Amino acid sequence: MSTSVNNVDQLIKGAYDLHIHTGPSFFKRSLDDLDMAELALQAQMKGFLIKAHEGSTVCRAYLAKKYINDQVNVCGGHVMNIHSGGLNPHVVDAQIKLGAKIIWFPTMSADNHIKHFGAMKFGSMKSTKNVMAVEEGLTVIDADGKLLPEVEKILELIASADICLSTGHLGNEEVYILTQKAFEKGINRVLINHPDFETNRMPLSKKQALVKQGAYLEMSFLSLHPNWNPIEPEEMVEGIKQVGYEKCILTTDYGSEGYPDPVEGFKSFLKIMLDFGLTKDQITTMIKDNPAYLMNDR
What we know:
Blueprint: H1 5-11, E1 16-20, H2 33-42, E2 47-50, H3 58-67, E3 73-75, E4 77-79, H4 89-98, E5 102-104, H5 111-116, E6 121-122, E7 125-126, H6 149-161, E8 164-166, H7 172-184, E9 189-192, H8 204-213, E10 216-220, H9 233-243, E11 248-251, H10 262-275, H11 280-294
Parallel strand pairs: 1-2, 2-3, 4-5, 5-8, 8-9, 9-10, 10-11
Antiparallel strand pairs: 6-7
Helix pairs in contact: 1-10, 4-6, 7-8
């Protein structure tokens, strides 16, 4: 039975979307931070997280939140790509001190991403700016499979600040090693970026192992989109049931030109998840309780 529009309009109230891309950007975006803040306010969302492959969104989030008089919790973080400092503990320390809620490991600069798509490219999306190409991608492990010393230091900084670590577009082996060490270092909040997306698609057994360690899994709407070598909704829902909704969040990964705005995208995503068998209570946990925990908003 198809879910009514009124159901998702109500369900999204008080929700978080922890993966929204806004402009300015190397890529074509459909809205900026203030546009998104207004949309979230109109939808009565609790908050959202601005993600930028270009680097930090900490100060952008501060200004967007102030723009709407703190009525929505606009969160920011830092992505450790080459053009934003790479795996540099000093940069991470500064962003944490400025108020970062999350530190993402490399995305477009990750060796895994470059081997999959190429530098400065995301499938059909190409950079609209003449940015220097990355000659060699970033990895968090050495030839022996051990974490690099600078990565260990970054983990200590994240643990000390009690904020969220997110795995970006690292390869599956890197993600597992990084996540295991993160919990050993005392990090409480680990988010595995879109494990159904084509850059870092994971088998169910790998997802289950990461959840067993304590990690949360991000299920993104973009992973269902036909432009991105998608999985089917049935597969995503079955995966959520197998690993446990208690350790999953739902996000859009929206904001690119040519897509609906992120709020409308989020509603469409929730409708699909309901239509394919998830309950309102399960979805509430994944869009309200779990993301609030990851953003330390409890």
